[in-house]
Amino acid sequence: MAHIYLVPGWFVGYDIALELAFAIITIIVSLYAFKIYRLSGQSQSRLFGLSFLFISISYVIQSLLNFAIMEQLEENISRAIALNNVALLNFIGIFIHIIFFMSALITLSYMTLRVRSAKVFSLLCAITFLALFFSTNKLTMYYVLASLMLIYICIHYLGNYWNNRQTKALLVFIGFVFLLFGTIHFIFSVNQAFYYFLGHALELIAYIFILINLILVVKK
Amino acid sequence: MSRKRDRLQVIYDILSAINERDGKIKPTHILYRSNLSHQMMEEYLTELLAKELITQNVTKQGKTYSLTQKGFDYLNKYKLIIDFVDSFGLD
Fold this sequence. Notes:
The structure holds 2 protein chains of 2 kinds. By secondary structure, chain A is mostly helical. Chain A has helices spanning about 15-40, 45-75, 80-115, 120-135, 140-165, 165-185, 185-190, 195-220. Chain A is globular, with a radius of gyration of 18 Å. In chain B, strands 1-2 form a two-stranded antiparallel ribbon.
């Protein structure tokens, strides 16, 4: 089973800062979506806000546990017990991140389907979490499922750009495409250190595009 | 133009009509201003009441509708709502 990421030595610490930056960007997007929901009562905005809230929580947890791992390694690098703690923290961190990130993608996918049905939502949740639970290689399964959902989300945003023909819609589409690239390559390279950095770099570009769009919307 | 955009636009038109009448309007005027069927207008008014964008006042002369603070906020922030909804594909 592959339950670990290999992190390049020079990247330790930077990854935590980036994850916190992702958490801040996504929580800002989430808060704005909830504000739009309060103003308009539009349920799509609430679902969008909820999905970005889940993404933000997933990054906060990931960064906190990565910080705890870094602390353990710096303080007790020579002790076997420390390595056990690191492995446990790593395991917990990855799985909590996966649960929240998948919840976000399920909510976002459900929103793009434009259906209002608790059955459809519960079916998406059941299929996703059962597949993850029974998979022998949970991390690879997570990337396969996340990539699949992101492909559908990207198709939705391509359609949205096609219909609106606005720069802002294009920015969001590109953002989600980068998020897809940042996820899909892990399917083939989960245990290679360089790809851990590449994943974070692609995610950074994705969230910058989404943030630029939000700034353009708010400033207008 | 998407269906949701139309819906948001209709809500904007109804709220604008109420706002232009000093914050109070009869259903017949809304019907005239929003260019909706009677049934559709009733559905929208029910929705706007549920979302607390308007309030209903029943008097001897009949029903009138007025804007709530949330309704005024919707009018003021309409451009922001539309931009956010369009760019983030929430229609």
